[in-house]
## 1
Amino acid sequence: MEYIRVTKDNLEKEHICCAISNNKDIQVSSKKAWLADRFDDGLVFLKSTERGKCFIEYIPAENAWNPIDADGYMFIDCLWVSGSFKGHGYSNDLLGACVADSREKGKKGLCSLCAEKKKPFLADPKFLKYKGFAVCDEADNGIQLWYLPFSFDAEPPRFKDCARHPHVEEKGYVLYYTSQCPFNAKYVPIVEQTAKEHDILFRAVHIESKEQAQNAPTPITNYALFCDGEYLTNEQMNDKKFLKLVSQ
């Protein structure tokens, strides 16, 4: 397998693995715009040269769009290998490249969000454990922070207090989201319209800066849905999924 690093120079011509379409598609354009603004913060997007979901995205933890204290670490936003790419060792390749790059840059180690059991759009805990990662912190909603230190004396990363106890002081459904996930550009407006049509109290909070993300009331900022103040899920919703959730 050959891999290529997406940069400002080749961003427009390269496909984005989690949104395979043309640049005019709102999902592709929103993701590429988000990436373009992150490269100066040290973000790395390494992907297969073949079209499909096979990539890793990581960034220095100080610049991560998550409320964590992990100075000196590299934060893995996403490691996604799916479909026909699974079972060929590509996850090992991508993680290995991240480890080598992070060591070369003098990082203390790696960290990433996960959970005791696999959740949508989060890392697989079995894979992380196999690769030597361990849990270093956990929020009340079961979202965990895992880390792989490069030295035995490296101080473990931690969630900020705002993320350790996910809660909002607001009735109805409240969604916190970023443009890091391309699916949000398409489906958040659909859920907003669905809620409006069915008289469901709903508010979407678009996190548009690193500062907002690092002080959000949730460890997952990419997509975090609350109801009457309590955290519900990080799984992206379309209209049918949202109405099913509301009817439960």
## 2
Amino acid sequence: MSNILVGFDFSAGSAYAVDLAIDIANRFGLNLRLVFVKDKDQDEAPLCEEIERRIQAVSHLFKGISMDYVVREGKVSEEFAAQAEQDGSELIVVGTNGLSGFKKNFIGRNTYSTIANSKCPVLTIREDFNFDKSLEHIVVPIDSSADTRQKIPFAARFAKIFDSQLHILGLYTSDNSSIKGIVDGYVNMVDTYLEKAGVQHVVKCVDVPKNLTVTTLEYADEVNADMIVIMTEQESSFSSMILGTYAEQMLTLSTRPILSIRPEQVNGLAK
């Protein structure tokens, strides 16, 4: 049976990941599996005892779902991806603090490698995010890349389950009329799709003066977004390439949860 996999290591970041994963699992009707990746010489018995205690402590939050755990050994990102593939997981949820030795504006290799290696979408959560409210506002940037619309079914599914409003943000990365025309065309297609699906949404198109990431994050601040949905392969302007790819920058700079989807990941929660 498919499930939601949660990376866990006893840190505050991974505890936040568990909390949000439980909410998502309850709404999607999916079971949860915690994955702890231990060091080679680490004693497994006390780990299992503490994990079981943690699961019992949150069991009152389960609504017709269950949570179990697996202890693996190896590289964190590889073990997460391997377990998710073995389980046929719908989603991986990780807290960026616990997995990366997190400091402000730094995501770390483990988290990004998990996204790069995973065959399912990955939701990353920073422990400094405000979890006092549900996923009310979800930002979905749309650019001129061929794969940009593939994240829409995932975003729409989340929006319907959480009764969220999608914020479709068209990004003009050039003054070139052809580029703007492509973005407008994609945004119109998305608007039509969401209208037919009955998903609450608003549409806004903006010029990108310098950087895709900065423009997206400023808009997310403007609407008080609770999550941003991105593709891990996105178009790059010259300015954004200075600091790396759009996806890497989003993961590094955003304090909000990021749902990262690779172009080939077009099933699972999108159904």
